[in-house]
Design brief:
heterodimer, A: mainly alpha, 75% helix, globular, B: mainly alpha, 73% helix, flat
Amino acid sequence: MLRYVAHRILLAIPIAFGVSVVCFSLVYLAPGDPLQTILPSDATQDMVTQIKHAYGLDRPLPVQYLLWLAHVVTGDFGMSISTRRPVILEVTGALYNTLILTSFAVPLAFVTGYTMGALAGCFPGRAVDRIVTGAAVVGVSLPNYWLGIVLVIIFAVELMALPATGMGPQGSAQFDILRWSNAQYLILPVITLSMIPVGIIARTTRAAVAEVLNQDFVTTLRAKGLSELAVIRHVLKNSAPQVLAVMGLQFGYLMGGSILIETVFTWPGSGFMLSKAIINRDIPVLQGTILFLSMIFVATNLVVDLLQSLIDPRIRRS
Amino acid sequence: MSQTATLPAATFEDDAPPAQRVRGYWGTVGYRLRHDPVTLCFGAIVLLIVLMAIFAPLLAPFDPYKESVILRLKPFGYRGHPLGTDELGRDLMSRLIFGARSSLLMGLVPVCIATALGGTLGVIGGFAGRRVNAAIMRTMDVFYAFPSVLLAVAISGAMGGGMANGMAALALVFIPAMCRVAETATAQVRSLDFIEAARATGAGTLTIVRYHVLGNVLGPVFIYASSLVSVSILLASGLSFLGLGVKPPTPDWGLMLSTLRQSIYIAPLSCALPGAAIFVTSICFNLVSDGIRSAMDVRL
């Protein structure tokens, strides 16, 4: 097991390295000079060379990358152009707000999606299977930001039962999950956020369970007189690695991919910060946030792989 | 020749029922699709949406760009505007009809690019030697390490938005996954006996790839590509919603959703319409893709 863990971690290092290269090159994808955003429009040639030297932009690209990497590893992601605060503080603050959303959306999505999928998989072709399959297709095809808007129209505009946007009357600084006046701001974004993962997890679980159910060992279990409940327990355990892989991916998506939902609900998380950074052309924040979020994604994948091998020893051996 | 061929047929025709005709692979796929009402029904809707996009100028009751200060955010049916007007007084129905163009374009073009590039890379990676495979697949792994929405937003955000940049970003998001599908399919075929037989008869690599590999790889690649269309439509309208895709005043469902959202308290119903259009299109493509997948499944 230990060897497998070491092997997997070693595999993740080049990927993390590649991710950092992609994030670094984002600056050079931007049209025009990366300096354009900082320099006044009437800057003289002298000033440009001076600032280029100050930022190290006159050195060759690989050197620039290594310098940048050295800063990043020590937690220095540069300064935000629009707020003049260190990017790392901005990112961690926003990430904390996203984490509040995710910590409610993940259990909701995983439990609902898994239950739906397992039920459908155990009764393939029956009514419950058809309903779940239909609901899962809807969940997967739904533009979730539109669902958010529709929920706002129903519950905030028409019924006036829940707040439409934001993170509470006092903003994010004093968000207190235990107070209803704050917690009610969570309801709509959490439901919206969990919709796509529910669809995807239900689909995968259904397929995995139905596939395992068709295998020969299930017949053997039944033949030796095991109760149906015990058979299902075996089936669920055997379908777990596949389901876990998808759940891990969805967890990663929820951590980083909620930019649309956070924009719809103006939830001050990492996604909302990203969309603000794009509007303000705040490249350091854009770069820092994406690097941070993709590293979380890489780490999640690593953890999922290790968990999978913990459940299923066959993966370890191959 | 005709005599010997027709003679037995003529004698069998009357008494014995004709032997069951054996369908080829595509015959079977076609037969399955023709007998799948769900796929047929949603396929018809997809066709309607495509026709609507093509013939938008003929179908739209008004000019989708014509603004009017006094006609802003009018309700359904107001002065001949069947679905009312938007925040700049433009006819909403005309804009919805024209919006199908950019949405379909941004749904299909990135998938086509990704299929061509990712598929080619995958076949090369699957068929070429170990080093080439490692070089291609490890590069793809890096792009795999980004959540797809994030990667699309990051690339088009850094490049500065616009329809072409959005399409390029989406294509880049799909290429790694497409490459993996093609690589897996190629690697599976590669070790089979008939490839070795072809090589033994003196066929060159290009000939083998063209006649023996592609036929086995195109199926899975096509199935995967068809499932990506709805994802691409969703992501593209998401980009437009964030201001990174189609630029105003071009009618686009994602963009309309984001501008009409500002008037959510005044005209909630018109605000929900563009999203409904995205939803219907995406679910139709999804179900058609599911139908194609099960029709093309050789195991059934």
